[in-house]
Amino acid sequence: MNSSTDPQSRSSKSVLTVGLAALAAVLIVAAIAVVLLPDHDLPGWLLKFLGREPALPVCDVKIGNTTFEVEIANTEAIRQTGLMRRDSMPADHGMIFVFKTTEPLYFWMKNTRIPLDLVYLDANANIISILHMQPYVTSPTYDSNTPAKWAIELNLNAADTAGAKPGDHLDLPKEAQDAAD
Q: Any residues with CB less than 8 A from the CB of 37 and at least 6 apart, and which?
């Protein structure tokens, strides 16, 4: 008997065809999700597989007269990477660096491609200083001059445009108040 006419063989081929079609459909849906969904809606393992970093938690912080959506850098590993290797950042975005203790802080722009403002905050969340940082500068460093607990990076001149100035108090949301390590 020819296997191509065997009912059991046809049934096996049919199951295999349906299985492959189902797998193809799942892969197509996954590909569409990767393109259309924001990173924070995708699982971390998938982002790593795609060579992308998992999205950081975000919060809103009002600085001067502008509310910025800032990524929260509250671990040593995240603080070390910061905004390195990014080509741009939306105008109303930034990153808040949360430290465990209040002490003099030092930043540099190693592997950072975009010019930034650096807003240092003291233990009471008052602005100590606003510095303007240029891409790739590693020496000298941009230091707080006095003890600081937070630093916020924004696009260059965003703090000035928002009307922020030393002495201003920022209301930081709970999720940006404490370092995770």
A: none
Instruction: Give all strands of the β-sheet with 93-103 in edge-to-edge order.
Output: 58-63, 66-73, 93-103, 148-155, 116-121, 127-133
- Overall size of the chain counted in residues: 181
Q: For residue 149, give the 3-state DSSP assignment.
A: strand
In 3D, which of 93, 94, 105, 83 has the Cα closest to residue 149?
105
Supply the DSSP string of 32-92, one letter for each residue: HHHHHS-GGGS-HHHHHHTT-PPPPPEEEEEETTEEEEEEEE-SHHHHHHTTTT-S---TT
Rg (CA), the chain: 24
Q: What token pair was written down for 116?
A: 């930034």
The string of pLDDT tens digits covering residues 4-34 is: 566 666 677 777 888 888 888 888 877 777 6
Give bridge partners of residue 59 from the DSSP assignment.
70
Q: Against a cut of 0.85, is the pTM above it?
A: no
- Whether the CA torsion 4, 8, 14, 18 is positive or negative: it is negative
